Amino acid sequence: MKHTLFTLVALALPAFSQTTVKDALVKHWKVTGEFTLEVAKAMPAENYAFRPVPEEMTFGQLMAHIGAADVGTCAVVSGLPRPEEPSKIAAWRKDQKLDIDRDTAVEYLTTAFSFCNKAIESTSWEKLDAKVGNSQLTGFERFWSYFTHTAHHRGQAEVYLRLKGVKPPEYVF
């Protein structure tokens, strides 16, 4: 009997420690937001207008692009209204040639990731499984694609940092 009870407990332990896909999504969006903010803060303010080649966005524009893309996706999937954006971000969304300074970028990314964390936590399983708008993507796929989009551009931003002699923050996942 003692052996059987031990075996049942041992077999049940992994089930108790497992998380759902949504739990993992919530957890990793929080981590990606925190890490992206660290990357944004690592670039000195005077280098926010830096671009490695003329075809690339400036570092500030890149940070604004990450925030705007994430806010858009999180609003569309969750159905929550977009948060107010700083006036400089609103102007940049109309004319993406405008530069974005460090304070504006950090403020906007903070708002964007806070909003996305709330949006993802509040999104029902039904919305995660449903197609979003005219897209063939489900809500989950849309969140996941923009999680990946953020990682792609954050990696690009880390190259910008290195080109300016700044060591990027230590990667976390």
Q: What portion of residues is helical?
A: 55-70%
Radius of gyration: 20 Å
Low-confidence segments, ≥5 residues, pLDDT <50?
A: 4-18
Q: Distance between termini?
A: 42 Å
What composes the largest sheet? none
Shape: globular
> What amount of the residues lies in strands?
under 5%
CATH class: Mainly Alpha
Based on DSSP secondary structure assignment, what is the total number of beta strands? 0
Name the quaternary structure.
single chain
Mean pLDDT: 90
Report the CATH architecture: Up-down Bundle
* Structural class by sheet pairing and helices: mainly alpha
What count of domains describes the coordinates?
1
CATH superfamily: dinb family like domain
What's the SSE pattern? HHHHHHH
Per the CATH scheme, the topology name is Four Helix Bundle (Hemerythrin (Met), subunit A)
Compute the number of helices.
Answer: 7
